[in-house]
Amino acid sequence: MPTDIHSATPPRPRLSLGPLLYYWPREQVLDFYAEMIETPVEVIYLGETICSKRRLLRPEDWWDLAERVAASGREPVISTLALIESEGELKTLERQCADRRFLIEANDLAALDFLEGRPFVTGPSINLYNQRTLSFLAARGLKRWVLPVELGRATAIELLRVRPAGVECEVFAFGRLPLAYSARCFTAYNNGQGKDQCEFRCGEHPDGLLITTQEGQPFLALNGIQTQSAAAHSLLASLDDVTALGIDLLRISPQSHDTAEIVRTYAACLSGDLSTANGLVRLRDLAPGGLVDGYWTGAAGIAATGALTGV
Amino acid sequence: MELVCPAGNLPSLKAAVDNGADAVYIGFRDDTNARHFAGLNFGDKQIKEGLRYARDHQVKVFVAVNTYAQPQGWERWTNAVDRAADLGVDALILADMGVLDYAAERHPELRLHLSVQASATSPAAIRFMHRHFGIRRVVVPRVLSIAQVAHLIKESPVPIEIFGFGSLCVMVEGRCLLSSYATGQSPNTFGACSPAAHVQWSDTPAGQETRLGGILIERRDRNEPAGYPTICKGRYEVEGETRYAIEEPTSLNTLDLLPQIMSAGVAAIKLEGRQRSTRYVSDVTRVWRDAIDSCRRNPAAFKPKADWMDTLARVSEGTQTTIGPYERTWH
Question: Distance between CA atoms of B132 and A241, rounded to whole angstroms?
């Protein structure tokens, strides 16, 4: 349900699980989602959003998983590719968007062409930066948008103030930030290979390939054509703020270890069963690249600011 | 095929016109365009004079309003659109769906081009933007091979413009947040990648260092040239080795591909570099004018002349040029 930001006690945000951004073995993926439907996440995004060459799970497999997620009482959403280059990718996207069983998350403008007129979600790589874009897309069927990750609370407040009835706002609340996409596969590039001869080397990096600066600071993670932050962005220290603003959903981005524990930590902090301070202590152990939240407060994304530093 | 040249100020606009541009693209002096640098860009007086000069030589003027408006400053973007419309420019180059919606509604007669920053890479994406905003041209991101560009031209409802020369964005334009990750400001939000205020250069015993937002993005020997300090062309540690993990300090030059670009049906070729000098604009415009004319006369025999390539190499950033994503092996 959309929240009224003027109400005295806005409902607590629900937790969502973002699409799996890495290339894991098929069994690991299936086990992962079997575990996830036992956690307090209420919405689960499913599908390959990074590279069309990754086919250990075919689109049909993702739909089967979606059925299982729905049977568990959670809401499945089918996520689609973030960068469309080939005709084949466009055809796959069109087929995905033609299936009306579940809500679809658009991650490229091309998906909007196919989804217009029915309910859809926009992911973080659709540039919804202002109120006019919000109302334009709402008139085309937008039901939920993920705030682009470089936008923070100041923009969220303005957008929430004017959001059309029935449109939900989701924010990226935990994980390595999706920062950029390229025609080049950087995992292959760093193995001296081109994308066409990649040998699926991204499979060797279940949380991306770490890039550190020449003075040893963890900086970025390369995940195929995607560049991510090495640190995990976390809004755990800002849950009261996020709740007061009327954000509807908090997105946890999957990582290869401890995702269930991360979800439970967020859920416990949201319900008040765990203090933020204790939640952060737990979270720091689960995020080897460190925690940052600068984007939320209007600073550089790599900064740890405000509540995150104070605890 | 139209030659679209950059101008960061009035002398550069005149240089582009004098050296054979078919169109010149410019921006206002604020964060509504993607070259928001101190001392760069146009006020109304300069635009009026530039328009007059360009018109006298049958050259078009396009204005880029191609960053993403945020609620806190929305009026700056609508004002920029209104100003450009009032000035009677030949086209507005826009990226943001909200700004496009405003421009299409308020100024239905105004010609709109979809900026590279809109990140439209497929016929479906272009169809969507065309259907709603009546865009009449699309500048495509530097992610497609030349074969994919040719296919896109066949399927697109509107003509296609591509980047032919200049700084090479390695990431798909409009969806790269690397700059704001380090500095809080990105091309989308601020109109600049690696804003100067966040760049620090220093000489250390370990070498010359470049920092962005305090983060070490390059450390090099004194004899190595320093390029524009972007994160994507920095040198980092990867699995125990120090290397350019994303891209080398290289820039784009597609002159070798010109016959294929023309036969694919590309409507316009854009040269990057509004932030560069008037000399740069003169040189690159003259070379590309000559090359396009030569290729048009005899595409089968076209071969880039050595002095063209020398001139382009001299003004290129970094030590080398690449055909970039237009060639599949780059991917």
Answer: 36
